[in-house]
Amino acid sequence: MKIDVHAHTFPAEYLQILRSALPTPPPIKEDWEWNEDRYLKEMDEWGIDMQVLSLAPPSVYFESVSLVNELCRVCNDRYAEICSRRPERFRMFASLPIVDVESACVELERVKSLPGFSGIALGSNILGKTLDEPVFSSFFDLADKLDLAIFMHPIWRTLPEAWHAFRLHHLIGLPVDTTFAVTRLMLSGFFDRYPRLRLIAAHVGGTLPYLSERIERAFREGRSQHKPSFYLKKIYYDTAGPTHEAVVACVAKMFGAEQVVFGSDFPFGLGQEGMQYMEKAVSVVERSELSEIDRERIFSGNLQGLLHIAI
Questions:
Q1: Bridge partners (DSSP) listed for residue 150
Q2: Domains in the chain, start-ordered, CATH in brackets?
Q3: Burial, 223: exposed, middle or buried (Cβ in 10 Å; 0-12, 13-18, 19+)?
Q4: Which helix (H) or strand (E) holds 301?
Q5: Are 219 and 187 contacting, i.e. CB atoms less than 8 angstroms apart?
């Protein structure tokens, strides 16, 4: 069995709102819009039994609180409708209007009982603010009380102009922002304050595996109860990237195969030359040289426990 924890789609209603509200709407390709037949066809082709749907950038991070509230309600309701019709194929990570913490708490209380709810999706920064800032504390108090799974996906932040050449702000900047965000959470004592939260770091944790020994040195300046290596073994890492099979094996060796979960970053990569993202994601786990037991954990076992998915 294969459960894909990192699958995106843009509901038509979301796109209509954005195109009406923004002077320059984001360039979202037709392949990225929700099309149930196309999604099921691709899933069946590569043996994906279930996907957990979430928004991709730009997600719901805009200055206008009313716009963000509307986008979240529309997306969450649409995802819930999909999950209620096809509960055997789809679950969802809810989007929350965390640009306004009070609104985020209200929406979380609403969506926690919707069909398919499996946790929440959060950006690696919120309009440039880091998640460990005190302004978000009341929200995370509630999230911790609810024992939530949080899917952290990188979101753009302001970078020097040189980063925009060759799409480096996207290809390098996004995984680096995940690394920065998670490191802040570890060193600030966030995980000590909210011990029940379960974090999934997208794209095999950005560059966390490769910088972990350097990050460890920051413990002396940090405010956490434990060294970063303690928290790194409690975070979950999805296999989306695209990445290499050696990276999947590396993360499993460093942090434990029980902390690695399957993700594809679908529908990005559709139509590209060579392997598409979903095909690539399946391949890197299968070619990782991990044991059959560990591969089964990554493909579905870890997520069944993490997201309370009963099969």
A1: 120, 199
A2: 3-306 (3.20.20.140)
A3: exposed
A4: none
A5: yes
